[in-house]
Write a structure and sequence with these properties.
Layout: E1 6-7, E2 10-11, E3 22-24, E4 29-34, H1 48-52, E5 62-68, E6 76-86, E7 89-94, E8 109-114, E9 123-125, E10 129-131, E11 136-142, E12 159-160, E13 172-176, E14 184-190, E15 207-216, E16 225-227, H2 234-237, E17 241-248, H3 251-270, H4 274-284, E18 286-291, E19 298-305
Parallel strand pairs: 1-4, 3-5
Antiparallel strand pairs: 2-5, 4-15, 5-14, 6-13, 6-15, 7-8, 9-10, 11-12, 11-14, 13-16, 17-19, 18-19
Length: 310
Amino acid sequence: MAHRHTIHQSHFGWDNSLRAVARIAPGETLEFEVADSSAKQLSPASSVADVARLDFSKINPVSGPVFIEGARPGDILRVTLLSFAPSGWGWTANIPGFGLLADEFKEPALHLWKYDAQTLAPAMFGRWGKVPLKPFTGTIGVAPAEPGLHSIVPPRRVGGNMDVRDIAQGTELFLPVEVTGALFSVGDTHAAQGDGEVCGTAIESPMRVALKFELIEQTPLSFPRFRTPGPVSRHLDEKGYEATTGIGPDLMQAARAAVRGMVDLLTFRHGMPAVEAYMLCSVCGDLRISEIVDLPNWTVSFYFPRAIFD
């Protein structure tokens, strides 16, 4: 499919006063050149020392913004993810002060990935196993109505850094429009991620993304929603899962316990350092709420696909 052109410009933070770098009509498609979430501060030649030197004012650039003609507050912007052209390299890091178990993993760590950009064959994680790949956009959204510059890090009512691994090829994403023209941007592409992105990073990987834009006029939408084209975890299901749980009255503490249990299991069973197990959990394990109705305790489970070590 031919796209009108490729968007190369990027920005840091959401701001409805930013000048649009392109204008398109509903029904048109665009290709976006997306940098990795470090904004090229990390590269295939990086070392762990580079993680400690990251400039957080330059984290998570997004390509855009794009003005959608006819978009008005109260509309829905429907974005269809048409295709991904991955780069073939990526990184996963433990960044001090960031992640679900940041208080337990205080030192920087870095894993550099190489993968086949054409076949997307599972990528090797050191000597321990291989991770099936599923490219997707971690950050995708439109400008908020509130004026000023807003951090790109937290997700918002208008989308943003949602890190939903199923916003992948074929998915239709529905975003509430808050400003004229919507001012759409996309970034933070990943080659793979588990639900929860527990260490704070996935396989962070630059790539090109092709998207189609349509409008649904004057239809209320409180938060983003999406529609997948088919099954979402078949690439991980074949060999089953190991699962650990956390149980208690606090969902966050239960989530931490479930992840900690899996880190301990992987460390014991496969002889990998705990920080490596933590990063591996982030790129391919799934954190799920299994039960949230049986007062006073809730159950959170962490599913780790056995296919990784097959």
